[in-house]
Amino acid sequence: MYDFHPSPGASKTQHYDELVAAADALTAGESDGVANMANVAALLSGWLHSLNWAGFYRRQGDVLVLGPFVGRPACIRIPIGQGVCGTAAAQAGTQIVPDVHAFPGHIACDGDTRSELVVPVMRGGEVIAVIDLDSPLPARFDDEDAGGVERLAALLSERI
Ligand code: SME
After folding, report:
1. Domain residue ranges of the chain, discontinuous segments joined by +
2. 47 Cα: distance to centroid of ligand 1 (angstroms)
3. pTM
4. CATH architecture assigned to 12-156
5. Dihedral angle at the C-alpha atoms of 65, 42, 92, 148, nearest 10 degrees?
6. pLDDT of 76-90, one tens digit each?
7. What is the pLDDT of residue 3?
8. H or E element: which one contains 90?
9. Which atom of ligand 1 is nearest to the CA of 107?
């Protein structure tokens, strides 16, 4: 049984330290990327507060294709360059979106979503996937969240 929990009262930095350590423990030695994405999506969903969607889109040529996630059923294919996820993939850069309604071309998969964080997963200089986190709270994500999820993305580079 896996039973990972954040330490109560941890600072935000420690909270992400522990998240990355738990993801490391969950995925170490497992070569199946789908299994690893599924477990990390479940981990994210429980570890971070106020999320309504947490998961992966995987790059397949010019599109991102839905991967393992926790949340409501979502858009399956997102062209590179479209929406928050497609923008993160096109720019190979993290997107922090405090108000999704103000993001041109935002793709609404869950009407409850108010803010979003998307972090690319890179391998050999290429975007291979993105990690997408949605929140029903406006401005849920800041630079520290982005940095923490970027560390997670780096860990997963060779594991998904
Ligand atoms: N909002 C995303 C689409 C994916 S869902 O949030 C799960 C976007 O604009 O790319």
Report:
1. 12-156
2. 20
3. 0.97
4. 2-Layer Sandwich (3.30)
5. 180
6. 999 999 999 999 999
7. 86
8. helix 83-91
9. 9
